[in-house]
Structure formats: C-alpha cells, structure tokens
Amino acid sequence: MLGTIRRDASRLVVATGIGYLLAILLAPVLSRLYTPSEFGLYTIFGAVAFCDAVACLGFDRAVGVARDERSAHTLFVIALFSVAVVAVLSAGIAWWAAGFFPSAPLWLWLAVPAYVLSFGTSLALSGLALRNRAIHRVAAARVGQAATVPLSQVLLGMASNSAPSLVAGQIAGQVVSAATYMVKGGGATTARVRIAEVRQLVVEYRHFPSVWVPATLLNSLNLQASLLAVGLLYGAGAAGLYGFGQRIAGAGVGVISSAVSQAYFAHAAAAVRSCTEVDGLRRHATDVLRSQALLAVPLMLVLLAAPLWVELVFGKDWIESGTYFQLLAAPLAAQLCISPLHAIIDVLQRPELHVVREVVRFVLTAVVFGVATIADVGIVATLALYGLGVCLSYALSLGLIRRAINRTAKAAS
Q1: DSSP assignment of 94-111, as one string?
Q2: Are 230 and 379 in contact (CB under 8 A)?
Q3: How buried is 290 (Cβ within 10 angstroms: 0-12 exposed, 13-18 middle, 19+ buried)?
Q4: How would DSSP label each residue in 73-92?
Q5: In 3D, which of 286, 293, 402, 284 has the Cα closest to residue 345?
Q6: Comparing C-alpha atoms, which of 105, 386, 40 is closest to residue 244?
Q7: Exposure on the CB side of residue 134, measured as CA atoms within 13 A
Q8: Most exposed of 42, 222, 240, 241 (fewest Cβ within 10 Å)?
C-alpha cells in the first residue's frame, strides 16, 4: 500500500505544486501591489472564516468510510445540506466579529458566507472523489484552485490594489475547485434520497458532527488564533507580516501535508472497509513519518536563512517578515511530519483523539497570548513561545496516533 500512497501523493503534490509554484513566482508581484495592512485585513478575513473546515459537519469524511455506495451518496447529500446551514451560521459569526474590528470595511464580513459556501461544496465533492480513489479529480481541482487564487489576486490588484481583491481571489479559487470536480465527474449517483435513510445515517455517523466537528473547529481556531491575537495585540501591519509568512511558507507545507494525508486516507479507508492490511497501518505510518522528516530538514534550513533573501525577493517593505519566517520554521516542520498521519484517526473513527489534541493546543495558545497581554511581551518572544506550544501539541498527536494504531492492530489479531 505504501508504494501506491507515495504514487498518489506525488500526483497530488505535483498538481498542487504547479499552482503553489505560480503563487511563489507571483508573490513578489503581490507584495508590491498590496501593503502589509491590506494583507492584515486579508488575514483577519481568513481567521473569521475559520468554520470553513467544518462546512460539511464531518460528513465528507463519513463518505469515505461509508459501508456501501448507497450510504455514501446519501452522506454526500447530507454534507451539501450541512454546507448551506454552516454558511448561514458563518454570517452571524462575521457580524459578531465585526464588533472587534470596527475599522474593517463591511465587505469583509459579507464575503465570509460566500467563501464558506464555495469551500464547503468543494470539500463535499472531494469526499466522493477520495472514496472512489479518483486522485486525478482531486489533482485537477487542486491545480485549478491553487492557480486561480494568485492569478486572480494579481489581476484584480492591478485594477484595484485593495484588500477586497485578495479576498475575491480566494473565493474564486474555491469556486474553480468545486467546478472542476463537477466537470470531471463528482461521482454522485442520481438515486433518490430517503428521509428515513438520512435519519439512520445521521445517527450511525453522529460521532463526526458531535466529536469530529468540535475538534476541527478547535483546530481551525488554533490555526487562526495566533493571527487574530497578533492583529489585536500588535496591529494589522504585524498581522500582515506574520500572515504573509504563513501564506508563503505555510502554503507549501500545506500542499505536501494535505496531499499525503488525502492519499493515505483514500487507501487506508479502503483497506479498513475491506478488513485488509489493518496490521500494516503501523508500518505505513512509520514510513510516511520518515519520508516527511526528510523533507522537513531543508524546509527548516530555508526558513532559518530567510533574513538573507526576503528583501531581495519581496522588497524592502517586507524585510521584517524574515524574522517571522524563522519563527515559523519549527512549527511548520512539525506540521509537515505529523499532520498527514491525522488521516488515521478519521479512518479508525476515533475523532475523540482529535479533541484531546486540539484542547491541549488551545490551552497552550491561550496561555501564551494571555501572558503576552498581561506582561506586555514583545511579538518575537510571543511567537517563539507559540511555536514551541505547536510543536508540543504535534508530539502529543503522534503519541495518540501510535496508541490508536496499536489498539486497532491488537484487536484485529
């Protein structure tokens, strides 16, 4: 199975890497079209739209582990309905968040539900594609999304170099991703959905919305908490510099991690459904961890050397971002190594492990920024402590994953 995972993950990495390479090439253009403050508003938008990751209420993951195709189709419909509900709720979240950022324009909050709707639709369609191991569909959608975002942001920025152009480009990328899945064939059947079956499946897979969703919300909140905290404590300019570092370095890590995770989920879920290769989950997880660690070493070296190349690549207005790249080195390396293995938790249907990990990370994040607020700590020291907390949470996550695999292998023997 490992060889197949590597092949499919490589296809996804190459596909998304095309768009990511385009984003990297256009980053110097974006850094000259937009100011750090405008990137700050863009970063705040992403933080407020944190509920995008749970737009399907976890039913997109349930599609992958459903016992038969009929159930998978019904779960897909449930996922789409969930997207509509969450998009409406996100409008309320945006209205509430507006009170904390009175200087932000109205369009910022109006765009949140539109983004959640487009992101959630793409997420539901990807669930079907992964169940069918249609990696080519996932790859095509990734290319479309990754290429559309920076291209749209550059073209719109040339017409009107303001923060709305950055947000519009982000939404356009998700629309293209969803459209690509539908054009390539989403994999859904035309069978009618019965209400009784919907109720049965919602009860059967209730642990996804009841346990997986809170864990994922905490994960999204944890990812955005540092950006929101930096914006509140140190201003939109600082948030823009830090968010820019996450956009450039974090996007690359996300490309690889997500690709390996999706490929691993597709094959591991199929193996567990057919009750085969369960004993091999531990071995495959170790191999994936080792291969990811080999990529983490050069990543850290490049980020630690950021002050040497940031001004040359992005311009003098972004010199300070070199320090933020350095602060991101350790937590991004930990993410690259361990986050692909989180797919195992979903395959084994142990979402409570996600909750444990994210609660610990949330507490660590709250403590770090709470101390920074009370003691008036500088931004560099604050983000260094935050990075340490992220690394500790990933170490805990690895321990939980190993424990879940061992228990499953023991039960299967």
Answers
A1: HHHHGGG-TTS-HHHHHH
A2: yes
A3: exposed
A4: HHHHHHHHHHHHHHHHHHHH
A5: 402
A6: 40
A7: 21
A8: 222
Residue 3 pLDDT > 60: no
Instruction: Output the CA–CA distances (angstroms, integers) from residue 355 to 115, 207, 318, 412, in the order listed.
Output: 25, 12, 37, 25
What's the first-to-final CA gap in the chain, in angstroms? 19
CB 354 within 8 A of CB 215: yes
Find the angle CA(62)-CA(67)-CA(68) to the nearest 5 degrees.
105
Asked if 279 and 44 touch (Cβ cutoff 8 Å), the reply is: no
Q: Which of 294, 292, 320, 289 is nearest to 307 (CA)?
A: 320
List, for residues 345-402, the tens digit of each pLDDT value: 877 778 788 888 888 888 888 888 888 888 888 888 888 998 998 899 899 889 888 8
**Number of Cβ within a 10 Å radius of residue 196:** 7
Nearest-Å Rg of the Cα atoms of the chain is 21
State the sign of the Cα–Cα–Cα–Cα dihedral 126, 130, 133, 136: positive
Task: Pull the structure tokens for residue 389.
Answer: 């907390």
Angstrom CA distances, 173 to 141, 169, 250, 357, stand at 9, 6, 17, 30
Nearest CA among 267, 217, 117 for reference residue 177: 117
Q: Supply 329's token pair.
A: 């080195």
CA distance 366 to 386: 9
Q: Write the pLDDT tens digit of every residue in 30-65.
A: 878 887 778 777 877 887 887 888 899 989 888 877
Amino acid at 87: A
Q: Which of 224, 204, 209 is nearest to 351 (CA)?
A: 209
Other CB atoms closer than 10 Å to residue 92's CB: what's the count? 11
CA distance 149 to 171: 8
Say whether 297 sits in a helix, a strand or coil.
helix
Contact between residue 264 and residue 138 where contact means Cβ atoms under 8 Å apart: no
Cβ neighbours of 185 (radius 10 Å): 13
Q: Is 277 exposed, middle or buried (0-12, 13-18, 19+ CB in 10 A)?
A: middle
- In contact, 378 and 323? CB cutoff 8 Å: no
- Residue the block writes with tokens 């602060």: 327
